[in-house]
Amino acid sequence: MSNYERKYDVVVCGAGVAGIAAAVKCVRSGLETCLVEKTIIPGGLATAGLVNIFLPLCDGNGNQILHGLPEEFLKLSVKYGPESPPAGWGGTPGTKQGRYMTAFSPAAFILALDELLDESGVDVWYDTLLIDARLSGRRLEAVEVVNKSGRGLLTAKAFIDATGDADIAKLAGCELREGVNHMSIWAIQASMKKAAAAIEYEDPSLLLDVVRLGADDKGDGHPEGEKKFRGVNGRNVSEFVVASRRLLRERYANLAENALGRYCGVSEFPLTFPLMPQFRKTRMIVGEEDVVEVDYPAAYSGGDSIFPDWRSEGRLWTVPAGALRPRGVDALFAAGRILSAIDDDAWDAARVIPVAAFTGERAADLARSS
Ligand SMILES: Cc1cc2nc3c(=O)[nH]c(=O)nc-3n(C[C@H](O)[C@H](O)[C@H](O)COP(=O)(O)OP(=O)(O)OC[C@H]3O[C@@H](n4cnc5c(N)ncnc54)[C@H](O)[C@@H]3O)c2cc1C
What we know:
The chain is α/β, with parallel strands linked by helices. 27% of the residues lie in helices and 24% in strands. α1 packs parallel to α8 and α2 crosses α8. The chain is globular and about 65 Å long. The protein starts with a strand and ends with a helix. The relative contact order is 0.19. The chain binds flavin-adenine dinucleotide. Flavin-adenine dinucleotide binds next to α1, β3, β6, β10 and α8.
C-alpha cells in the first residue's frame, strides 16, 4: 500500500556520477525528472565511496575522446580545490602534460554536485530507497520507494537504473551477470608527514592523504586466506564492510603500538571512511548488445559511442545503445557500472567515473527518444 504517488517523465534511481549525469541531461532536454538516492550524498562511489581519481577523458595519445558531461564533471570535481584541471587540457593554459585526468577531494566534489543539482531543476529524493518495480506485461510502469513518509509510488514514461548494482533491473526480473570483488579498502587519513610536505611545497593537494590497503584493481594484494565477495546479498555486503574496515584497524593498531610512549601519539590517524561498500563490480545487466573494444585508430572518428581505456594508451571501446537496454523489459535503461559488457576486461574498462558520466548522458538520450 503506497502513502503517496508522483508522476514524472523520467525516474532515475541512484545519485552516483551516472545517475546525476542522466538526471541533469534529462532536465536539460526538457523532461520532468526525479533522482532517487538511498544516502544523502551525491556522487556514489566517487564521493561517498572515497574514490578520488577522475580517470582520463583522452586516449593517451593526446586526443580528447570524451566531452559533454564527463568533461563538465571533471571540472566540477576540482572546482572547490585542491587540484586544478591538468595543463593544456579543457582550455587550461600550458602544453598538454600526461592524460586528461585529475585527482580530487571527494568532499569538494560533493559541494560542486550539490550546486549542479540545485541549479539544474532535478527533483532530488535523498534518503529514499528503491524497493520494488511494477511492470505491466514487459513494460516498467512504476518503482516503489520508501523513506520517512512511508512507501511511495513513482510512475514515469522511462526509468534509468543507475544504482551501481542493477537494483531496478533485478527487481524487474531482468537477466543479470555478477562480478567478483577482492578485499580492499580506500580511506582518507591525516598525517604529520603529508602536512609538513604540503607546507614545504606550498601544495594543499598533498593534504589529501589516501590510504589504499588490500587488493588493487587487478586483485593483486588480496590478503592471503581471505575470501572473495560478490556483494549481491545482505550478509555478503556486511561481511565485506566489516572485513575491509578490519584491514584498516590493523594498520592503525600497529601504528599506535609503535607510537606508544611518544609525546605526540600517532603521527597518522584515520579521518574519514567510505560510506558505501567499495565493490568494484556487483551486477551488470544482460543487454541487447555489449560494450566491446574497437579498432584504434580507425574508431577515432567513430562518433559519440566511443570511450577511452584508462588502463592503456590507444585502446578504445564502444557503448552501443543496446548495452544500456536490458533484455526483456521496456522503458528501462541502464547507466554507469551496470552496463552490459562482453567480458571482465570490457567491464573493467567501462566501470569508471568518466564512463559513468558518459553512459548517464547516453541513457538520458535513450529515455528521451523512447
Ligand atoms: C576501490 C575502488 C577504487 C576505484 N578507483 C577508481 C578510480 O581511481 N577512478 C575512477 O574513475 N573510478 C574508480 N572506481 C570506480 C568508480 O568509482 C565507480 O565505478 C563509479 O563511480 C560508479 O558510478 P555509478 O554512478 O555507476 O555507481 P555508484 O557510484 O555505485 O552509484 C550508485 C548510487 O546508487 C545508490 N543506490 C544504490 N542502490 C540504491 C537503491 N536501491 N535505492 C536508492 N539508491 C540506491 C547508491 O547509494 C549510489 O549513490 C573505483 C571503485 C572502487 C570500488
